[in-house]
């Protein structure tokens, strides 16, 4: 086992500091090259290609075209397979996620009188069809089913369809089906990876073409979304998970180590950093990691050790909390915990983070599974321009304008001046006195 990275930010050059903010997603060239033929095969062969990739890439040897869509009987079996405690936790999470997302639902329409007799506003309608990608590979993700389905249902999208890889036995993860049905999504396709993105983008004999695909995934999924961005709206960029723990000197380094491992265990391509100005917190964290690894499964130990000793994770000592906050902003993490007895003191200093969890009782796990805000979040500095998945990802907005006879003269006079300046004669004619003549017809 290699030791976790430990660095003091002040000892780093500007380039070395910047290099710490790189993610595995920064170079997708390998994946882009590999997924291009998969996308083309799905475009030209449809279901035939989906079955072939399900058999080869997901090892679902018994997969058939007829079996690509989950049946009602498979949903019913899933409820019998999943423990009651898991079903209850799914219900608990969905209730909170729904409660949170209902607050985001826009009014169907608003209008304002911007000038006497001139009205302007917005109208919102659900997108007609959205595919929800639910990963399955380095884990199964009923929680992602909850996070993608609920905002789509709240937005009243008429055609929601989950795409998720089949396991080797040809079935979809049972808790994913339970979560889908409780959330209100009954269309689930057994297709994952790049082929799922292609199936949603082009449609196949079985799979209905979608206008948008949301949901996180491995670099295979991220690469496919990037290549098909001209065919389907790929939503916010959500790739390998990232966690950052910002800790001041008021907390236990043992606690910081515990939460550092949360996102580090997703996969070797994830990122996880502890940033603190406290040498004590840093040292306690380093000393605690072996004890925590002894409580984890071998695969999760392997993933988190790869992250913490590789290019995308470790423990960083900053000069001060100010410097630590500056580094957080340079990094723009997906999940951020502000671990302090006074977390609100630092909230104003953090401007770049997709999710900010405050205090010592709000670990990322609670955000991932139970609290309500969406845990499908932008990665790889996406937080600089995107927010978490939300109801607004499932609706489109049209602006509405209505000018009355009373409001017309002032609007027309000003519009004509600019139409003339820009040299558009038809634009200008339409707001000239000629219009008033035509209106008399
Ligand atoms: N950003 C977020 O909000 C968020 C949320 C949850 C999970 N995640 C991330 O999503 C990712 C999920 O990854 P995963 O692997 O568990 O599931 P996944 O479903 O994204 O990827 C598995 C699929 O990849 C394809 N694949 C695997 N090997 C391949 C190969 N050699 N060639 C072509 N295709 C191949 C297969 O089709 C397989 O079904 C993780 O990185 C996790 O950290 C992110
Ligand atoms: N941390 C993930 C988002 O990056 C969400 C998740 C689901 N299950 C476990 N984790
Ligand atoms: Zn997670």
From TrEMBL:
Keyword Oxidoreductase found: yes
Cofactor annotation: Zn(2+)
Entry GO terms, CC: cytosol
Keywords per UniProt: Metal-binding, Oxidoreductase, Zinc
Gene Ontology biological-process entries: L-histidine biosynthetic process
UniProt GO MF annotations: histidinol dehydrogenase activity; metal ion binding; NAD binding
InterPro entries registered for this protein in UniProt: Ald_DH/histidinol_DH, Histidinol_DH_monofunct, Hstdl_DH
Residues at the active site: 334-335
Annotated family: Belongs to the histidinol dehydrogenase family.
UniProt name for this protein: Histidinol dehydrogenase homolog
């Amino acid at each position: 086992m290699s030791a976790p990275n430990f660095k003091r930010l002040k000892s780093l050059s500007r380039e070395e500091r910047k290099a710490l903010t790189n993610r595995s997603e920064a170079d997708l060239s390998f994946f882009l090259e590999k997924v291009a033929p998969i996308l083309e095969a799905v475009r030209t062969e449809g279901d035939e290609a989906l079955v072939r990739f399900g058999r080869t890439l997901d090892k679902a040897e018994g997969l058939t075209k007829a079996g690509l869509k989950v049946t009602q009987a498979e949903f019913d079996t899933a409820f019998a397979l999943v423990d009651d405690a898991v079903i209850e936790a799914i219900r608990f999470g969905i209730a909170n996620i729904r409660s949170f997302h209902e607050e985001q639902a826009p009014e169907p329409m608003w209008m304002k009188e911007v000038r006497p007799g001139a009205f302007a506003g917005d109208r919102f309608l659900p997108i007609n069809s959205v595919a929800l990608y639910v990963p399955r590979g380095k884990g199964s993700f009923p929680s992602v089913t909850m996070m993608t389905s609920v905002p789509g249902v709240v937005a009243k999208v008429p055609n929601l369809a989950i795409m998720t890889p089949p396991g080797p036995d040809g079935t979809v993860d049972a808790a994913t089906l339970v979560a889908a049905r409780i959330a209100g999504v009954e269309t689930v396709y057994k297709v994952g990876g790049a082929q799922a993105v292609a199936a949603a983008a082009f449609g196949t004999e079985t799979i209905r073409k979608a206008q948008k695909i949301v949901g996180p995934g491995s670099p295979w999924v991220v690469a496919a979304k990037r290549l098909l961005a001209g065919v389907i709206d790929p939503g916010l960029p959500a790739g390998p998970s990232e966690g950052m723990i910002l800790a001041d000197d008021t907390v236990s380094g043992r606690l910081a180590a515990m939460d550092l491992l949360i996102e580090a265990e997703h996969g070797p391509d994830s990122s996880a950093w502890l940033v603190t100005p406290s040498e004590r917190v840093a040292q306690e964290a380093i000393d605690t990691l072996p004890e925590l690894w002894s409580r984890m499964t071998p695969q999760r130990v392997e993933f988190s050790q790869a992250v913490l000793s590789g290019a995308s994770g470790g423990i960083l000592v900053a000069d001060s909390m100010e410097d630590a906050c500056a580094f957080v902003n340079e990094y723009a993490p997906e999940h951020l915990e502000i671990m302090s007895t006074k977390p609100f003191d630092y909230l104003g200093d953090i401007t770049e983070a997709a999710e900010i969890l405050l205090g010592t009782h709000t670990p990322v796990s609670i955000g991932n599974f139970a609290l309500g805000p969406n845990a499908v979040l932008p990665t790889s500095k996406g937080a600089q321009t995107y927010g978490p998945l939300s109801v607004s990802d499932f609706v489109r907005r049209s602006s509405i304008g209505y000018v009355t006879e009373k409001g017309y003269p002032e609007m027309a006079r000003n519009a004509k001046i600019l139409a003339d300046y820009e040299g558009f004669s038809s634009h200008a004619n339409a707001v000239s006195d000629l219009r008033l003549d035509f209106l008399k017809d």
